């Protein structure tokens, strides 16, 4: 008994689970509908529903968009304000498209204190926006947008959504070391330093610009073998005369002066070069200024990476085809707690949808990231508009 108590106490003291929302039958008590768009009849309603395949009649249920071409605005107060500054922050939830979704968002937004749930609309400034956004397949993208320094800052890397009828787990993790990680169905799609993804953030490691190349630095891996000497028989002509006799009917007046034809000398070996040998004083490569911790990052600017007053989670989307189920929202700072929640929720659902999948497939992250980079580069070259432009194009039409 005693060890169990100690363990559970330590979890409570050192880890935080801010929100675990499984959308049981009491969900309406916690979620507030916004009145925005109500008058114009453009506001859609959420219903309590499960995907086609379910691990449990009730536990598989989440909230589902139920009317086509509508706005959806709904939010929940987490109940207390929390800060993610200097901490890990994990945000995850599941999405199941029961419809065939051509165009529609299924992302969530996290808001700081001072947010008016009853008037929630697309104009409300979020702190973090995260999740899939599908439109005409060319614009499918997982958003990670942070409101920092007075601007909404989108992540650089483009991550494809999973646009099928299964239940997919989307996870965003801000690690303490300022790395950002995005997982889909527990596969890491992205793991990068935040300053690489958002140029806004100061680099956590920089080159030491004061460092100078040491005078004895030697970047030549090979050097000339000074003891090597040219063999005495090396120098021979490249071409030598053949044994051809002057033809008997050769007419010097008509054919010009007879010249014996030449051939390549098989003994010719070209220019002699001394042997190269490993350089005993090789320093290991080109000299580079060493990496150091960026001195500009002091405790105070830790704030750049986190949010101080997080409090609400909301869904604010437009859907052309309704039928998306949002479920299993987790917000916390502890990866073990997160895993336990995922095991109790999405993993059970996933087993019903993929009964034959034994162990999770390991993906080569670096490879897929490189592929994505190439694709984005190609698009930029071809002048394909950025997703956000595409999105505006599409929202303007309705
Ligand atoms: C940051 O922390 C995460 C989680 O521990 C780890 O996976 C990642 O490799 C770390 N990044 C760097 C650059 O050390
Ligand atoms: C979650 O499930 C996985 C796979 O079944 C297991 O390895 C892991 O220990 C579980 N994690 C927790 C925290 O329960
Ligand atoms: C799973 O495996 C069984 C037996 O091998 C097969 O009959 C079934 O079609 C498979 N199901 C799926 C969803 O692949």
From TrEMBL:
UniProt keyword terms in alphabetical order: Calcium, Chaperone, Endoplasmic reticulum, Lectin, Metal-binding, Signal, Zinc
Localization of this protein: Endoplasmic reticulum
Cleavable signal peptide: 1-19
Keyword Nucleotidyltransferase found: no
Gene3D superfamilies: 2.60.120.200, Calreticulin/calnexin, P domain
SUPFAM superfamilies: Concanavalin A-like lectins/glucanases, P-domain of calnexin/calreticulin
Organism: Blattamonas nauphoetae
Family to which this protein belongs: Belongs to the calreticulin family.
Alphabetized InterPro entries for the sequence: Calret/calnex (IPR001580), Calreticulin/calnexin_P_dom_sf (IPR009033), ConA-like_dom_sf (IPR013320)
Domain of life: Eukaryota
Name this polypeptide is given: Calnexin like protein
Region annotated Disordered, chain positions: 353-398
Biased composition (Basic and acidic residues): 353-384
């Amino acid at each position: 008994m005693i060890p169990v108590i100690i363990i559970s106490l330590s979890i409570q003291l050192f880890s935080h689970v801010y929100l675990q929302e499984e959308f049981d039958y009491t969900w309406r008590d916690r979620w507030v509908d916004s009145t925005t768009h109500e008058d114009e009849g453009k506001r859609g309603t959420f219903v309590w529903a499960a995907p086609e395949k379910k691990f449990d009649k009730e536990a598989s249920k989440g909230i589902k968009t139920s009317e086509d071409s509508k706005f959806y605005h709904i939010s929940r107060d987490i109940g207390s304000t929390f800060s993610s500054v200097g901490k890990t922050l994990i945000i995850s939830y599941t999405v199941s498209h029961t419809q065939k979704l051509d165009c529609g968002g299924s992302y969530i937004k996290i808001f700081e204190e001072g947010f008016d749930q009853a008037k929630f609309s697309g104009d409300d400034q979020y702190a973090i926006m995260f999740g899939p956004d599908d439109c005409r397949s060319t614009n499918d993208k997982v958003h990670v947008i942070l409101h920092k320094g007075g601007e909404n800052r989108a992540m650089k890397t483009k991550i494809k959504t999973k646009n099928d009828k299964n239940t997919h787990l989307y996870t965003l993790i801000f690690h303490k070391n300022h790395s950002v990680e995005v997982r889909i169905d527990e596969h890491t799609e992205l793991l990068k330093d935040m300053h690489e993804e958002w140029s806004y953030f100061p680099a956590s490691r920089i080159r030491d610009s004061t460092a100078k190349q040491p005078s004895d630095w030697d970047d030549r891996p090979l050097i000339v073998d000074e003891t090597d000497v040219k063999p005495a028989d090396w120098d021979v002509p490249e071409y030598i005369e053949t044994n051809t006799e002057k033809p008997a009917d050769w007419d010097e007046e008509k054919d010009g002066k007879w010249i014996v034809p030449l051939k390549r000398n098989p003994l010719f070996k070209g220019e002699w070069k001394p042997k190269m040998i490993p350089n005993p004083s090789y320093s290991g490569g080109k000299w580079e200024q060493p990496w150091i911790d960026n001195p500009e990052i002091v405790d105070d600017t830790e704030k750049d990476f986190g949010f101080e007053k997080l409090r609400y989670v909301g869904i604010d989307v437009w859907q052309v085809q309704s039928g998306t189920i949002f479920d299993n929202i987790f917000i916390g700072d502890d990866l073990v707690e997160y895993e336990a929640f995922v095991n109790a929720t999405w993993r059970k659902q996933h087993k019903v949808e993929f009964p034959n999948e034994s162990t999770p497939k390991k993906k080569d992250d670096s490879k897929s990231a490189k592929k994505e980079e190439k694709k984005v580069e190609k698009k930029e070259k071809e002048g394909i508009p950025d997703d956000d432009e595409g999105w505006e194009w599409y929202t303007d039409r309705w």
